[in-house]
C-alpha cells in the first residue's frame, strides 16, 4: 500500500493524503467517501465511496482507471439507491483496475468498495496510540494492568469522514507469573526439576566431571518423591494452560480477551510470564478505550500450591 509511513508524514495527515490520492483517480465522478475501516489485527483496510456517473454522452469519454500500485483491489460495486450489484465488471492489467462507464446500468449513483490486504504497519502507528504497561500495580493480591488505546487526531477525521473505524485493535500484556510458581510449588519439587535440568546441560556440554556430579545430585533429589520429573513438568505446564490461567483473569469493557499464550517456558523450570492478548474496536463514536486487566495473583499462587502439594 502506498499510504505513507512515519518517516514520510507528520501525523495522521499522511494517511488522509493517501486516501485523498485514491479519490483523485475518480475526480471526474464526484467521489464521496462514505466509510473507511482498518483492521489492526489482519493489517487490512476497506474504503467505500459513492461516485456519480451521469447516464449521458459523458460515459463515452473514456475508461475509469485506478492504479494498482495504490494497493487497493475492487471488491464490489452496486447501485446507490437499491444496493443491487452492478453487472459491469472491472478489468485489470498489470498497472490498472479499469471500468468502461458505458457498461454501467441506468442510473448515475453507484457505491464502490475497495480493499487493501497489505496495509503498512507504519500506517497504524500514525492513526493509533497504544499504551501498555510493562509492570502492574499490585493491590490486595491482585496485579492490575491499566491499558489505553486511542485514535490520533479524531477531530480532523470527524471533519472529513462520516464513518471511520479501526477494528480489532490488539494489545499484548505480558503477565508475570514466575513468583506464583516459585512460591506455590514445594522446594523439594523445584529441586528435583533443577537437578534434572543441570544433568541435561552437563550432558550437552560434554563435561564428564560435571555430568557425574549432576547424576549424583539428581539421584539424591529423586529420593524425595515417587512421581517422575516428566509428570511434575506436565502438571506445571497444565497449570499454565490458557483454559486454567484464564480463570484468574478479568478485563474491563470495552476490551475483550482474545488469546492466552503460555508457550514461554523455554529452558526455565517455571514460566517467567504468560502473554495475554486483549482487543477493542475504535471509531469516531468511541475514540479511546481505557480498561484494566486484573490478574488474581494470590489466588493463582494458592491454586498452584494446592495442585502440587501431593508431589512431595
What do you see in this structure?
This protein is of the alpha+beta class and 312 residues long. It has 3 domains: 13-121, Immunoglobulin-like (Sandwich); 132-180 and 235-311, no CATH class; 187-233. Helices cover 30% and strands 32% of the residues. The protein has 9 helices and 15 strands. It has helices at residues 13-24, 121-127, 154-160, 178-184, 187-205, 208-222, 229-239, 242-245, 297-308; strands spanning 32-39, 44-52, 64-67, 72-79, 91-92, 96-99, 109-116, 128-131, 137-139, 142-151, 164-176, 249-251, 256-261, 273-283, 288-295. A 7-stranded mixed sheet has the order 4-7-2-1-11-14-13, with no helix packed on it. Strands 8, 9, 10, 12 and 15 form a 5-stranded antiparallel sheet that branches. A 3-stranded antiparallel sheet has the order 3-6-5, with no helix packed on it. A hairpin with a 3-residue loop joins strand 5 and strand 6 (96-99). The chain is elongated, with a radius of gyration of 29 Å. The protein starts with 12 loop residues before the first helix and ends with a helix. Residues 1-10 have low confidence and may be disordered.
Strand content is: 25-35%
Number of helices: 9
What structural category arises from helix and sheet content?
Answer: alpha+beta
> Strand sequence of the main sheet, in spatial order?
4-7-2-1-11-14-13
Largest sheet: 7 strands, mixed
Compute the number of structural domains. Answer: 3
How far from one another are the termini? 59 Å
- List low-confidence stretches: 1-10
Mean pLDDT: 85
Inertia-based shape: elongated
Region (Disordered): 204-227
